Fold this sequence. Notes:
This protein is mainly alpha-helical. It is built from three helices and three strands; from the N terminus they run E-E-E-H-H-H.
Amino acid sequence: MKLYFEKQIWKCNVEQRNQHLGVRTGNWFEGSRISFVTAVRFIYCWCKELTSIKFFAEELGIADKTVIDWNNYMREICALEMDEKERKQ
Length: 89
């Protein structure tokens, strides 16, 4: 599968299949109301610890409530991943 970012799809390059999936299909982006690009930018900034509501409102144009929801969601994902790694040890 190859990512076509401008179309926001994954496309199978095997001729017989000719399948494509949206980048939000079957993952935690599914159902998100912010754009995929904004979500990726949010995740990048969050990883760089640029997490203030003011920063996201000014730089990405995201509403305060959305910033709070996404900050909480990112923390939840990290906590779940850490818990999963601990169980495997």
